[in-house]
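Sample entry copied in:
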Amino acid sequence: MRYLLVEDNIELSEAVIKRLALDGHAVDHATTLAEAEDCLAAASYDLILLDVMLPDGDGRDFLARSRVHLQTPVIVLTARAQVSDRVGALDQGADDYITKPFDFSELEARCRAVLRRRGGSARNEIALGPVIFDPLAGTLRRGAETVELRNREIRLLEVFARHPGQILSKSQVMDQLFSYDTAVTENAIEVYVGRLRRRIDGMGVRIETVRGLGYRIETGAP
């Protein structure tokens, strides 16, 4: 998944980015609202983590303005713990609210919960035909058979699983997997897809190549 973190505290930002990267997530970092607007104009994100007090304005005002056209889920990060602050952020379009200082495991859990709600699911598991994919556990199950996936494989399969039946180009996959500061080529995507295919071979779910267009996830017998 690709996240946008809008936070001017560099020490906190580095810690959040490092923690999310351990789970295979790509995180772009903006320290101002202006930088956040530039990021949103150039890329699409699965989730935004938005600080309230930023050098060039209030994150809640930015959120209220952006909600006219911005559908991406947003978790507000702030040191303000009053009920009125939480209610105000939610009324202005936030999907969730977490108070600083926070435990990273709680932040990760809230990210998962918000993404599940946006996807219309109450659980982490994703059904892919006869196969159950659990991004949190990093497993793909079919009956009694289970395949354990590595972090990059989990995130790559998650990209395809959240776009069933849709053809994704290499550049679209690359945008979902990597942040701006990660140097990667489309050839690397071919390598990652090849590794994932070998891991899930025989499980009843496949990543098919659509010549000249990209890749698409398929389930069931070939």
